[in-house]
Amino acid sequence: MKLLIVNGPNLNMLGIREKHLYGTRDYAALCAYIQQKAKELGVEAEIFQSNHEGAIVDAIQGAYQRVDGIVINPAAYTHTSVAILDALKAVQVPAAEVHLTDVTRREPFRQISYAGMACQAHFIGLGFEGYGKAMEWMKENA
Predict the structure, then answer these.
(1) CATH (one of 3.40.50.800, 3.40.50.9100, 3.90.600.10, 3.40.190.290) for 2-141
(2) 22 labelled catalytic
(3) Which residues in the chain land under pLDDT 70?
(4) Cα 107–112–115 angle (5° rounding)?
(5) Which is catalytic among the residues 22, 77, 114, 131?
(6) 99 a catalytic residue
(7) Are 100 and 128 in contact (CB under 8 A)?
(8) Which of 27, 77, 99, 131 is catalytic?
(9) Cut 0.85: pTM above it
Protein backbone atom coordinates (compact mmCIF):
# COMPACT_ATOMS: atom_id res chain seq x y z
CA MET A 1 0.00 0.00 0.00
CA LYS A 2 1.27 3.45 -0.95
CA LEU A 3 0.03 6.61 0.78
CA LEU A 4 0.55 10.23 -0.15
CA ILE A 5 0.87 12.46 2.91
CA VAL A 6 0.11 16.07 1.98
CA ASN A 7 1.00 18.94 4.31
CA GLY A 8 -0.12 22.48 3.64
CA PRO A 9 1.19 25.94 4.42
CA ASN A 10 3.28 26.74 7.47
CA LEU A 11 3.64 23.15 8.60
CA ASN A 12 7.30 23.49 7.62
CA MET A 13 7.47 26.01 10.49
CA LEU A 14 6.54 23.51 13.22
CA GLY A 15 8.65 24.01 16.31
CA ILE A 16 8.91 27.72 15.53
CA ARG A 17 5.32 28.91 15.12
CA GLU A 18 2.77 29.20 17.90
CA LYS A 19 4.45 26.69 20.20
CA HIS A 20 1.53 26.98 22.63
CA LEU A 21 -0.67 25.37 19.93
CA TYR A 22 1.71 23.19 17.93
CA GLY A 23 4.42 22.29 20.41
CA THR A 24 8.17 22.35 20.00
CA ARG A 25 8.74 19.39 17.66
CA ASP A 26 9.75 20.50 14.18
CA TYR A 27 8.70 19.41 10.70
CA ALA A 28 11.61 16.96 10.44
CA ALA A 29 10.28 15.26 13.59
CA LEU A 30 6.83 15.01 12.00
CA CYS A 31 8.29 13.45 8.86
CA ALA A 32 10.31 11.00 10.95
CA TYR A 33 7.17 10.08 12.91
CA ILE A 34 5.23 9.48 9.69
CA GLN A 35 7.98 7.30 8.19
CA GLN A 36 8.35 5.28 11.40
CA LYS A 37 4.59 4.71 11.59
CA ALA A 38 4.50 3.72 7.91
CA LYS A 39 7.27 1.19 8.55
CA GLU A 40 5.35 -0.26 11.52
CA LEU A 41 2.23 -0.58 9.37
CA GLY A 42 4.08 -2.01 6.38
CA VAL A 43 3.01 0.79 4.05
CA GLU A 44 4.93 3.25 1.92
CA ALA A 45 4.49 6.93 2.78
CA GLU A 46 5.42 9.65 0.31
CA ILE A 47 5.47 13.00 2.12
CA PHE A 48 4.77 16.28 0.35
CA GLN A 49 4.63 19.80 1.82
CA SER A 50 3.97 23.11 0.14
CA ASN A 51 2.94 26.61 1.06
CA HIS A 52 1.41 27.00 -2.40
CA GLU A 53 -2.16 25.96 -3.19
CA GLY A 54 -1.46 25.08 -6.82
CA ALA A 55 1.45 22.82 -5.86
CA ILE A 56 -0.83 20.98 -3.44
CA VAL A 57 -3.46 20.57 -6.17
CA ASP A 58 -0.75 19.26 -8.52
CA ALA A 59 0.43 16.74 -5.90
CA ILE A 60 -3.12 15.49 -5.35
CA GLN A 61 -3.73 15.20 -9.09
CA GLY A 62 -0.43 13.35 -9.42
CA ALA A 63 -1.78 10.74 -7.00
CA TYR A 64 -4.36 9.59 -9.55
CA GLN A 65 -3.92 5.85 -10.19
CA ARG A 66 -0.58 6.00 -8.34
CA VAL A 67 -1.42 5.78 -4.64
CA ASP A 68 -3.94 3.87 -2.54
CA GLY A 69 -4.82 6.72 -0.20
CA ILE A 70 -4.18 10.35 0.68
CA VAL A 71 -3.65 11.69 4.19
CA ILE A 72 -3.98 15.45 4.04
CA ASN A 73 -3.41 18.29 6.46
CA PRO A 74 -4.39 21.23 4.28
CA ALA A 75 -3.58 23.62 7.16
CA ALA A 76 -4.88 27.13 6.42
CA TYR A 77 -6.18 26.00 3.00
CA THR A 78 -8.67 23.83 4.89
CA HIS A 79 -10.93 26.82 5.30
CA THR A 80 -10.45 28.49 1.92
CA SER A 81 -9.59 26.08 -0.87
CA VAL A 82 -12.31 24.78 -3.11
CA ALA A 83 -9.48 23.89 -5.52
CA ILE A 84 -8.07 21.32 -3.06
CA LEU A 85 -11.59 19.97 -2.44
CA ASP A 86 -12.13 19.58 -6.18
CA ALA A 87 -8.74 17.89 -6.67
CA LEU A 88 -9.51 15.36 -3.92
CA LYS A 89 -12.89 14.64 -5.49
CA ALA A 90 -11.40 14.36 -8.98
CA VAL A 91 -8.77 11.72 -8.21
CA GLN A 92 -11.26 9.43 -6.45
CA VAL A 93 -8.63 8.17 -4.00
CA PRO A 94 -9.67 7.51 -0.39
CA ALA A 95 -8.66 10.49 1.74
CA ALA A 96 -8.31 11.23 5.44
CA GLU A 97 -8.08 14.73 6.91
CA VAL A 98 -5.63 15.47 9.73
CA HIS A 99 -5.18 18.55 11.90
CA LEU A 100 -2.62 18.79 14.68
CA THR A 101 -4.82 21.09 16.77
CA ASP A 102 -8.52 20.84 17.48
CA VAL A 103 -9.75 23.28 14.87
CA THR A 104 -13.32 22.84 16.13
CA ARG A 105 -12.30 24.74 19.29
CA ARG A 106 -10.49 27.56 17.56
CA GLU A 107 -11.59 30.69 15.69
CA PRO A 108 -15.01 30.66 14.00
CA PHE A 109 -13.52 30.79 10.50
CA ARG A 110 -11.77 27.47 11.17
CA GLN A 111 -15.10 25.67 11.52
CA ILE A 112 -15.44 25.09 7.77
CA SER A 113 -13.30 22.41 6.16
CA TYR A 114 -13.64 22.38 2.40
CA ALA A 115 -11.01 19.66 1.97
CA GLY A 116 -12.71 17.64 4.69
CA MET A 117 -15.84 17.44 2.55
CA ALA A 118 -13.94 15.05 0.26
CA CYS A 119 -12.45 12.96 3.09
CA GLN A 120 -13.87 9.75 4.45
CA ALA A 121 -12.17 10.06 7.85
CA HIS A 122 -11.05 12.93 10.07
CA PHE A 123 -8.39 12.98 12.81
CA ILE A 124 -8.52 16.31 14.58
CA GLY A 125 -6.52 17.60 17.53
CA LEU A 126 -4.37 14.50 18.07
CA GLY A 127 -1.01 16.07 17.27
CA PHE A 128 1.42 13.87 15.36
CA GLU A 129 -0.62 10.82 16.39
CA GLY A 130 -3.41 11.98 14.08
CA TYR A 131 -1.22 11.04 11.13
CA GLY A 132 -0.66 7.60 12.60
CA LYS A 133 -4.39 7.10 13.17
CA ALA A 134 -5.10 8.25 9.61
CA MET A 135 -2.56 5.79 8.18
CA GLU A 136 -4.03 2.98 10.30
CA TRP A 137 -7.49 3.90 9.00
CA MET A 138 -6.19 3.82 5.43
CA LYS A 139 -4.63 0.39 5.90
CA GLU A 140 -7.92 -0.97 7.23
CA ASN A 141 -10.33 0.84 4.90
CA ALA A 142 -8.69 1.85 1.61
Answers:
(1) 3.40.50.9100
(2) yes
(3) none
(4) 130
(5) 22
(6) yes
(7) yes
(8) 99
(9) yes
